[in-house]
Design a protein that fits this description.
There is one protein chain. The chain is an alpha+beta fold and 152 residues long. The protein contains 2 helices and 7 strands. Strands 1, 2, 3, 4, 5, 6 and 7 form a 7-stranded mixed beta sheet that branches. The longest helix is centred in the middle third of the chain and has 13 residues. The radius of gyration is 15 Å and the shape is globular.
Length: 152
């Protein structure tokens, strides 16, 4: 769904998932603008009638093929891009969630061209979307000392 994402009349609500498995976090590389070539978390726009949890599970499955268990909100980011005439070309409000891996192996898709399980401490040294290291740290804190423990 891309309707209303360029020059939107209001911000677009989106979700992303900081997914942990074996002490590593999953980062994906965006295949298309905005954010093309940057490492980030899988996610996307919330569709009408869809809960945040449903959107998070759907977007993760579409982008990576993984099944996940959302745990808690880890933070948010706003992405506002303006065109040369200073008009708002894109405006996303992204709610980032901590999540645990349940099943599957990450596979690239039409939206992401690479998937990597990385040590959370590495994130700050990489070319990522703005504020990603802070979101990953907050997500890890939400999961506590046992990030790989299955939800109870």
């Amino acid at each position: 769904m891309t309707e209303g994402r360029c020059y939107p009349p209001r911000p677009v609500l989106a979700v992303s998932a900081a997914i942990f498995r074996g002490g590593k976090v999953l980062l994906v590389r965006r295949a298309h603008p905005p954010g093309q070539g940057l490492l980030t978390l899988p996610g996307g726009a919330v569709e009408a009638g869809e809960t945040l949890r449903q959107a998070l599970i759907r977007e993760t499955r579409e982008e990576t093929g993984l099944s996940i268990a959302p745990v808690a909100l880890a933070g948010h980011r706003e992405v506002i891009a303006r065109d040369p005439a200073d008009r708002v070309e894109r405006h996303f409000v992204i709610l980032a969630f901590a999540a645990r891996w349940l099943a599957g192996e990450p596979m690239p898709s039409a939206e992401v061209d690479q998937c990597h399980w990385l040590d959370p401490a590495e994130v700050a040294t990489l070319e990522t979307t703005e504020g990603l290291a802070e979101i990953v740290a907050a997500a890890l804190a939400q999961l506590g000392k046992k990030p790989d423990q299955a939800p109870g």
